[in-house]
Design goal:
Blueprint: E1 5-14, E2 17-27, E3 32-36, H1 43-51, E4 58-63, E5 66-67, H2 73-78, E6 81-83, H3 96-105, H4 113-126, H5 142-155, E7 160-164, H6 172-187, E8 191-195, H7 199-205, E9 208-213, E10 216-221, H8 223-227, H9 230-237
Parallel strand pairs: 3-8, 3-9, 6-7, 7-8
Antiparallel strand pairs: 1-2, 1-4, 4-5, 9-10
The structure holds adenosine-5'-triphosphate and magnesium ion.
Length: 242
């Protein structure tokens, strides 16, 4: 089966800095790909290239065989690719439910009116925010803003979901809930790219991992393989400690 997503030679320069340097990888249907690596290694930039927030300097990105590099972000969302942001982005003037409805209206499978509202309510239940639909965004706890963002992304009905450190900053109980939630998304057949530093989550959720360091891919394999790879350990610890 052809991959959902293929990156070939994906490169992004910011002036003199090569943030993403000739990256190649494929994401297979229904798989969770972990995109991991130390701080500043180019993970978020890679998600930005896939979601259309940034354009490639060179290389290609294909979604089910069709080039998507150069398309506007909203066109990529319409094709079924949605992402959460490392720093949560919501519409602060709207309540919880309306933020989620916004995702449904602008999504892959567009929903309107009562259908969008009902869908939003069901997603709020699912992420653990049942009954909080009318709350202003400003009154939410940190974890709840993350839950709203996930519900907003799910409202667009993505077939490829990009999660940028969605589990970061959660306490141990919230983390277990969060991992279970991502598992349930995988089990319903969504394809996921998970950018994550939480090793428990990587081990329990990812089918395969791509490891980045300073913009390049330094390893690829199962979580067990890459996390025991000396090059990966060296990249995480820094050369001095390895
Ligand atoms: N818009 C930008 N303009 C200039 N440099 C940028 C921009 N976005 C990212 N960078 C730089 O590109 C490099 C990769 O950043 P990126 O955010 O992709 O890393 P990351 O792997 O997501 O790191 P973290 O784990 O800390 O989130 C960093 O050196 C960063 O400073
Ligand atoms: Mg990042």
């Amino acid at each position: 089966m052809s991959p959902v997503l293929s990156l070939r030679g994906a490169t992004k320069r910011f002036g003199g800095l090569v943030a993403v340097n000739g990256i190649d990888f494929d994401v297979a249907e229904h798989q969770v790909l972990g995109l991991i690596g130390p701080n500043g290694s180019g993970k978020s930039t890679t998600l930005n290239l896939i979601s259309g927030a940034l354009t490639l300097t060179s290389g290609s990105i294909k979604l089910r065989g069709a080039p998507i590099s150069g398309l506007a972000a909203q066109d990529i969302t319409r094709r079924g690719v949605s992402r959460t942001f490392q720093l949560v982005r919501l519409l602060p003037s709207m309540n919880v439910r309306d933020n989620v409805i916004a995702g449904a209206v602008f999504g892959h499978r567009r929903r309107w009116g009562a259908e969008a509202r009902d869908f939003a309510e069901s997603l709020l239940e699912r992420v653990g925010l049942g009954g909080k639909g009318q709350m202003p965004i400003g009154q939410l706890t940190y974890i709840d803003t993350k839950r709203v963002e996930l519900a907003r992304v799910l409202a667009s009905d993505p077939t490829l979901l990009l999660l940028d450190e969605w589990l970061a900053g959660l306490n141990p109980t919230e983390l277990q809930d969060g991992i279970a939630l991502i598992k349930s998304l995988r089990d319903e057949g969504r394809t996921i790219i998970l950018v994550e530093h939480v090793m428990d989550a990587i081990r329990s959720l990812c089918d395969r991992c791509v490891v980045m360091s300073s913009g390049t891919k330094i390893a690829e394999g199962t979580p067990g393989e890459v996390l025991s790879d000396p090059n990966v350990i060296r990249a995480y610890l820094g050369d001095d400690d390895a």
